[in-house]
Amino acid sequence: MSRNNGMLYPVIGFASCVILMYMSLGNFSIPTSKQPDMNFVTVSETQFMLDGKTFYPNGWNSWWLMDQAVEDESRYRVKNIFQIGVKMGLSVCRTWAFNDGAYNALQISPGKFDERVFKALDHVIVEARRNGVRLILTLVDNLQAFGGKTQYVKWAWEEGVGVSASNDSFFYDPTIRTYFKQYVKAVLTRKNSFTGVEYRNDPTIFAWELMNEPRCMTDPSGDTLQDWIEEMSSYIKAIDKNHLLTMGMEGFYGPTTPEKLNVNPEEWAANLGTDYIRNFKTPYMDFASFHVYPDHWFKDQSVEDQLAFVKKWVSSHIDDGEKILKKPVLISEFGMSNLNKFYTQTNREQNYKVIFDLMHRSARKKRSGAGAFIWQFLVKGMEAYGDDFGFIPTENPSLYKLIAKHSCKLAVVQQNEVLLKQISKGVCQS
């Protein structure tokens, strides 16, 4: 009897530990199957490289993954969107790795984090890898949604720091720079609660994106933003030497390239404190990226004129990567608003096709244009998370097929038989 009790107590103790672990994780499913092997994506001149071959990161945006992974009833959507993306032959998803001071905040206050939300981000990374998808993780937003730079400035005010009333003090105030560095270090060195792998050592992450759509309108010279980019990119690379790094630039040309100003949508675009070529010449920036939104950048421009601008805008940035920056180039956001007075499903598809064709042509010629990311994909039941660009791919058969066929073309360029087989049955043959 005493011998049986001696065996029983350790068993009970172990079971109790497991139960406590489960309770601490909420209802997150703990992965038991071996994760697929992945290697880090690298850069060689104007090409992305993976396993010794050229890699074209064809993908999409779903900013909401971490947010939806927090709650039990919405977590399934993360898996769903990855499965849909894979069936269309997409390989990389761009998503937010931040939520500052808002509902389901990751960072509650400077340097303080909600472990429940961090576990949600852990889950996103694990689920991405399970499905063979890589992630571009964005670290902060210029916009106020989910905190952004405005939240950092608010925190500084609350701490009695004498910052400017402008939220551009995010870029130059030393206290706020320290806040952001604390956050960056916490994310990059985060040990995934499911896999035990620090984020900086996980090849599921394709790249870090320093900021989404940065603007510093109080300094149109571009010096303030450039100084911030140089300091923060150097800081990230000192912590993480494995991953690629970029900025989520809109792509506007600035003061250092006056010969390019006529490519900008309108005169205002040169006065936002950004300077595309200068920003991406920063040595720690591994690749360049830009956005394409002519229906937001122009007033009352016809669809034909918008498409003409898209061709000029995309071609110019591919040339920049090829001839000036000597780096790969991604379109990290593009789309067409359904609030555009010229909007039709056909016009949206035409917009997509123009961009896809330009990227396919660049890939065939081994130029710097490497991929394009649609803004944005949703799944059923997410109407409240949508915007005038978002759509559910499975409910838009013609768009679904257009995207998958572009994936097929890129798979042929890469001679990727595995990718061709995983794309929805029959699409590549039709």
Automatic annotation (TrEMBL):
The keyword rRNA-binding does not apply. Residues 39-416 form the Glycoside hydrolase family domain. InterPro entries: GH, Glyco_hydro_5, MAN-like. GO terms for molecular function: mannan endo-1,4-beta-mannosidase activity. The chain crosses the membrane at residues 7-25. It holds the Pfam family GH5_mannosidase. SUPFAM superfamilies: (Trans)glycosidases (SSF51445). GO terms for biological process: polysaccharide catabolic process. It catalyses: Random hydrolysis of (1->4)-beta-D-mannosidic linkages in mannans, galactomannans and glucomannans. Its EC number is 3.2.1.78. It is an enzyme of class 3 (hydrolase). Keywords: Glycosidase, Hydrolase, Membrane, Transmembrane, Transmembrane helix. Belongs to the glycosyl hydrolase 5 (cellulase A) family. This is mannan endo-1,4-beta-mannosidase. It comes from Papaver nudicaule (Iceland poppy). The lineage of its organism: Eukaryota, Viridiplantae, Streptophyta, Embryophyta, Tracheophyta.
